[in-house]
Structures are given as C-alpha cells and as structure tokens.
C-alpha cells in the first residue's frame, strides 16, 4: 500500500518540563507559530545549548511543556558539539548525552541530548487502515534529483496527522523541505 505523506524537516530543538522551564524563564511559554501536529507549537522562547567544546544559540523550544527534558539535534550538530548522542524515539532518553541548556536567567545540565529517529506521525484511525502498529518500520520513498528510500518508525498519537519527520541531515541528503510530499510504502 502507498500513501502520500507530508514531510516535516525537524531542525535542532528543545522540549522542557515545567520545572526546567521555570529555572530558565520568568514568564509563561509563548506560542510563536503552530506546528502541523495538533497542539504542538514553536515557542517564541529560545535557549542556548552547549558543551565544553561547542555551542548553539537561539535553539527553539517546542511546546507544550513535557514531562521530560529533551534536546534533539542532527549528527552534524553533534559533531560541532563534540557529542555522540544515541538515535532514539522521542521520550526514550536511555544513554542520552549530557548537555547544558542556558538562558540569561540560568542554566541546567541534563542527560537529554539525542538524535531523533526518523518517524511518521499518524493517528489510531490511520494506523488501523494501514494495518500498522506503533514503532513498526515502514518505508518512505523519495523521488527527485536525489532519490532513495529510508525506513521510518510509525508514531501513533491520538491527534496525530500524517507527516514524516526527518532531521536536517536527512532532509539535506535528499533535497527535501518541509511541506514536500512523498510516498509512504506500507
């Protein structure tokens, strides 16, 4: 079965808990712009992420606040920070690399840095019609000048909308941009 799916390119970003956010800011998290996934948004607030050997400023917080802290970067970002974070499903922080998250107010150091695995968001109805389970691997077929195929993990959420998330390294390798449409092979 094939189904057209939107591409979402996921640049480096941070998810924070309420407690961590309050250590870094003195005001409520502010919506800058909604994301395609229902209820998620890019916040106006940004942070600096750093290690002893590298730094990235103006890293966007993705809301709403979560029950875990997580910093998602690409392999290229990891090289600049001299880190070797694991590739993980969002929320799976086993073996996550330590990283410092800083603002003018303060900073925290947490074992929270990962490279997010490629995944495709969908809701339970989509999953049922495709006959797939959460975590199952399916194929994203990419046509164009730099064509190819990549495996993506199914990520089922109650309000999920059909969208494949790739990090900037993957997107650049295939000349993809947010909003492109490609084929999901199930």
Q: How is this structure best summarized?
A:
With 186 residues, the chain is mainly β. The protein contains four helices and 14 strands.
How would you describe the overall organization of this protein?
This protein has helices at 18-24, 75-81, 124-130, 168-173; strands at residues 2-10, 13-15, 31-34, 41-50, 55-63, 70-72, 87-88, 97-102, 107-116, 119-122, 137-142, 148-156, 163-167, 181-185. The chain is mainly beta. The mean pLDDT is 97.
Helix content: 10-25%
Number of strands: 14
**Cα-based radius of gyration, to the nearest Å:** 17 Å
The shape, in one word, is globular
Uncertain residue ranges: none
**What is the strand content?**
over 45%
How is the largest sheet built, in terms of strand order?
1-13-10-12-11-14
Quickly give the structural class. Answer: mainly beta
The topology string of helices and strands comes to EEHEEEEHEEEEHEEEHE
Query: With helices defined by DSSP (H or I, 4 residues minimum), what is the helix count?
Result: 4
C-alpha end-to-end distance: 5 Å
Mean of all residue-level pLDDT scores: 97
| Sheet of most strands | 6 strands, mixed, barrel
List keywords for this structure.
186 residues, 4 helices, mainly beta, 15% helix, six-stranded mixed β-barrel
Which SSEs are present, and which pair or pack?
Layout: E1 2-10, E2 13-15, H1 18-24, E3 31-34, E4 41-50, E5 55-63, E6 70-72, H2 75-81, E7 87-88, E8 97-102, E9 107-116, E10 119-122, H3 124-130, E11 137-142, E12 148-156, E13 163-167, H4 168-173, E14 181-185
Parallel strand pairs: 1-13, 2-5, 6-9, 7-9, 10-12
Antiparallel strand pairs: 1-14, 2-6, 3-4, 4-5, 4-8, 8-9, 10-13, 11-12, 11-14
